[in-house]
Design a protein that fits this description.
mainly alpha; 71% helix
C-alpha cells in the first residue's frame, strides 16, 4: 500500500519540503566537490595500479581509502534526493530503499572503512618510523590484502545494526529506525 500526498499532509508532524535557493547552492557546491573528489580518487587508484613501483603497503591502503571516498561521494547525492520527494514506497520495497539509500547503510560502511583504513595506516607508519629494525611488526605486501578484506568485513559489521533496524515508517512516510 503506498502513501499518497493527501495522507501525508494529514499528519500534523510531517512537513513537506520545498526547494529553496540555499538547496540549489549546496547542490552546485556538492557537484563541484563530487567532480574533484571522484577525479582525484580515480587518479590515485590508476597511478598505483599502473605503476609497479607504487605497489607498497601504504599505497594499497591509500587505494582502499580512495575506494571508500568514491563510495561516499557517489552515494551521498542519492540520499539527498529522497529529501525532495516525500512520497516513498511502502512494504518491502520501502524497507529496502530505507536500508540502502535513505538509511545511509552504504555510507556508514564506507565511513567505517575509511576510519579503519586510516587507523591501520597510522599503526603501520608508526612501526615503520619508530621501530624500523623490527620487521616482524611491519605489514607486508602479502598480508595487506587480508587486512583490507578484514577492514571491509569490520566496516560491514559496524554498520549492520543500523542496516538491520532501518524500516519505512507508514506514519511519517519516510525512513525511521524501528
Amino acid at each position: 500500500m503506498s502513501v499518497n500526498e493527501t495522507d501525508l499532509n494529514s499528519f500534523r508532524d510531517f512537513k513537506k519540503y520545498t526547494i529553496e535557493r540555499v538547496d540549489v547552492v549546496f547542490a552546485v557546491l556538492y557537484s563541484l566537490l563530487l567532480i574533484v573528489g571522484f577525479t582525484g580518487n580515480c587518479l590515485v587508484i590508476t597511478v598505483v595500479r599502473k605503476t609497479k613501483s607504487m605497489h607498497t603497503t601504504t599505497n594499497i591502503l591509500l587505494v582502499n581509502l580512495a575506494v571508500s571516498d568514491i563510495v561516499i561521494l557517489l552515494w551521498c547525492p542519492r540520499t539527498y534526493s529522497f529529501v525532495f520527494y516525500p512520497i516513498h514506497p511502502s512494504g518491502k520495497t520501502g524497507d529496502y530503499i530505507c536500508k540502502m539509500f535513505t538509511g545511509n547503510a552504504i555510507i556508514t560502511v564506507a565511513i567505517a572503512s575509511s576510519v579503519l583504513t586510516l587507523s591501520v595506516l597510522a599503526i603501520e607508519r608508526y612501526h615503520a618510523l619508530m621501530k624500523p629494525m623490527r620487521t616482524e611488526l611491519r605489514l607486508t605486501i602479502e598480508h595487506v590484502k587480508y587486512v583490507v578484506f578484514f577492514i571491509w568485513i569490520g566496516a560491514i559489521s559496524i554498520s549492520f545494526p543500523n542496516f538491520s533496524e532501518s524500516k519505512y515508517s507508514q506514519r511519517y512516510g519516510r525512513y525511521d529506525h524501528a
